[in-house]
Amino acid sequence: MGRAAVLAGVGSAVPDNVVTNDMLATRMDTTDEWIRTRTGIRERRHLARGSATSDLAAEAGRRALKSAGVDSVDAVVLATTTPDHPCPATAPAVAAMLGLGTIPAYDVGAVCSGFLYGLASGAGLIALGTAERVLVIGAEAFTTIIDQTDRTTAPIFGDGAGAVVLSAGDQSQPGALLAFDLGSDGDLADLIIIPGGGSRQRASGIPAEPGDEYMAMRGREVFRHAVLRMTESSRAVLARTGWDVDSVDWLVGHQANVRILRAVAEHLGLAQDRAFVNVDRYGNTAAASIPLALDDAAGAGLITPGDRIVLTAFGGGASWGAIALEWPDL
Amino acid sequence: MNTTILDLVAEKAELPAAQLDPAHTLEDIGLDSLHLMEIALWMQKEYGVVIAEGELHHEQTLGEAIAFLDTRVGG
């Protein structure tokens, strides 16, 4: 069998501060019922003042290394939309915080699809022979780019981090990443966008408008494209693995909205209870959501060794993807 | 009236199809904006018909919405 990247450990970290729907309803015109019926979200975590993405990333990374039973890797790939600073990348700081030495470390930006792009990048380093072991992290201090008075975005997003260790192995090993599908459509860049703070606005010579530092989202159109692209991408990896949809044990989709997850399962012809859901407790944590979901599901004993898993995501860019694997015995 | 489409609307509204009054608006029967998108996506899956954002809206009566969807399926 060919050389492959094999998932060898998983970990996650979320801030302690729980923010419930009722707490949000005291600050803005919304209700617990409205948020739950539209999104399935009951609560989310908010980062403590003074903390940043690297703090969550390092903790999730530490737990993934422990899960894999290793204390060194050859590279760190960090998927994030909310780096500690606009420049430099946050991954080198995370590598330093974990005492991993002067290894290559870089950020990947694909918003909510970022973790899947990070896995593909990490698997690429292994395929090239550049690395034998890679720590791939998805981490977000997403609430820092959300206007906490905006009822269309504030209830949706939360902070968190998740990570996996990929090790060089072969495709017959449990945990091997068996098939990848990735895509993007820049014509949909305005679906999910922070208008200010980038070179487009800075080079215009026109100061950013108040609020332009926050993310804006066209929710209904995101919903439509997310369902179609996640379905299509999942089908592509099923075709590449030769798996029948009925043989899939878990669809671990990006946790944006329970209604998107249900619609993707329906479009795939998969039973709804095969779509793992933890968006109710963490909200949408963007690049962190898939590894956070994996750690949560495995920790709860829902995902068990040998289970066939399809990961899929859609996010800003627009970007999307899917990856298939069989869950290893960790 | 297309009973398959009516059944889908009833499922989204969580009401028996027989209880749905064609004169009521989609908002009256309790459909939110994501329900309208779910119906549009279902039309795409079942019939390959793309319903653009805004073609289904809350002010439409159920009768008008079903007639519109019927036309799109027929066309």
Automatic annotation (TrEMBL), chain A:
<feature type="active site">
    <location>
        <position position="284"/>
    </location>
</feature>
<dbReference type="GO" id="GO:0044550">
    <property type="term" value="P:secondary metabolite biosynthetic process"/>
</dbReference>
<protein>
    <recommendedName>
        <fullName>Beta-ketoacyl-[acyl-carrier-protein] synthase III</fullName>
        <ecNumber>2.3.1.180</ecNumber>
    </recommendedName>
</protein>
<keyword id="KW-0443">Lipid metabolism</keyword>
<keyword id="KW-0808">Transferase</keyword>
<keyword id="KW-0275">Fatty acid biosynthesis</keyword>
<dbReference type="GO" id="GO:0005737">
    <property type="term" value="C:cytoplasm"/>
</dbReference>
<dbReference type="InterPro" id="IPR013747">
    <property type="entry name" value="ACP_syn_III_C"/>
</dbReference>
<dbReference type="InterPro" id="IPR013751">
    <property type="entry name" value="ACP_syn_III_N"/>
</dbReference>
<feature type="domain" description="Beta-ketoacyl-[acyl-carrier-protein] synthase III C-terminal">
    <location>
        <begin position="238"/>
        <end position="327"/>
    </location>
</feature>
<dbReference type="InterPro" id="IPR004655">
    <property type="entry name" value="FabH"/>
</dbReference>
<dbReference type="Pfam" id="PF08541">
    <property type="entry name" value="ACP_syn_III_C"/>
</dbReference>
<dbReference type="GO" id="GO:0033818">
    <property type="term" value="F:beta-ketoacyl-acyl-carrier-protein synthase III activity"/>
</dbReference>
<dbReference type="GO" id="GO:0004315">
    <property type="term" value="F:3-oxoacyl-[acyl-carrier-protein] synthase activity"/>
</dbReference>
<comment type="function">
    <text>Catalyzes the condensation reaction of fatty acid synthesis by the addition to an acyl acceptor of two carbons from malonyl-ACP. Catalyzes the first condensation reaction which initiates fatty acid synthesis and may therefore play a role in governing the total rate of fatty acid production. Possesses both acetoacetyl-ACP synthase and acetyl transacylase activities. Its substrate specificity determines the biosynthesis of branched-chain and/or straight-chain of fatty acids.</text>
</comment>
<feature type="domain" description="Beta-ketoacyl-[acyl-carrier-protein] synthase III N-terminal">
    <location>
        <begin position="106"/>
        <end position="186"/>
    </location>
</feature>
<feature type="active site">
    <location>
        <position position="112"/>
    </location>
</feature>
<comment type="similarity">
    <text>Belongs to the thiolase-like superfamily. FabH family.</text>
</comment>
<comment type="pathway">
    <text>Lipid metabolism; fatty acid biosynthesis.</text>
</comment>
<keyword id="KW-0963">Cytoplasm</keyword>
<feature type="region of interest" description="ACP-binding">
    <location>
        <begin position="255"/>
        <end position="259"/>
    </location>
</feature>
<dbReference type="GO" id="GO:0006633">
    <property type="term" value="P:fatty acid biosynthetic process"/>
</dbReference>
Automatic annotation (TrEMBL), chain B:
<feature type="domain" description="Carrier">
    <location>
        <begin position="1"/>
        <end position="73"/>
    </location>
</feature>
<protein>
    <submittedName>
        <fullName>Acyl carrier protein</fullName>
    </submittedName>
</protein>
<dbReference type="InterPro" id="IPR036736">
    <property type="entry name" value="ACP-like_sf"/>
</dbReference>
<dbReference type="Pfam" id="PF00550">
    <property type="entry name" value="PP-binding"/>
</dbReference>
<dbReference type="InterPro" id="IPR009081">
    <property type="entry name" value="PP-bd_ACP"/>
</dbReference>
